[in-house]
Hints:
Number of helices: 7
Helix content: 40-55%
Distance between the termini: 50 Å
Radius of gyration: 16 Å
Strand content: 15-25%
Structural class: alpha/beta
Amino acid sequence: xxxxxxxxxxxxxxxxxxxxxxxxxxxxxxxxxxxxxxxxxxxxxxxxxxxxxxxxxxxxxxxxxxxxxxxxxxxxxxxxxxxxxxxxxxxxxxxxxxxxxxxxxxxxxxxxxxxxxxxxxxxxxxxxxxxxxxxxxxxxxxxxxxxxxxxxxxxxxxxxxxxxxxxxx
Length: 169
């Protein structure tokens, strides 16, 4: 292992400090819905959210599009993290309209292992608020994504493509 790839306690504390600074820009969250069919990925995301927000944040999980709709109808979350590909045959472009029809108007951050420029555009056009790559799920990337979709001045559910168009005009 090379010296440059080794992590130190100082690196960890610096990153944690950066995340706390980013988190300070976020509104208070009390309920997040994670829509993920893979238990390991769902637990990883939940653990990352716990590091960021502690146990005050309720993190609910749905493993199918149907159970996600049920969760939203039961209680509106502040934020939804949605896996792009849900087994056996659902994907985020199909699931987002179901969530919206269930009267969920908040932000949806899609987590995808297939982020390309075209796929990102498809997801944003379908109503996603932001898209991040599954390999990039860490506290820093989540905080930055949540700031993009939750910071004051952005309306909940507003897509990144809509914000981009508004900036150009």
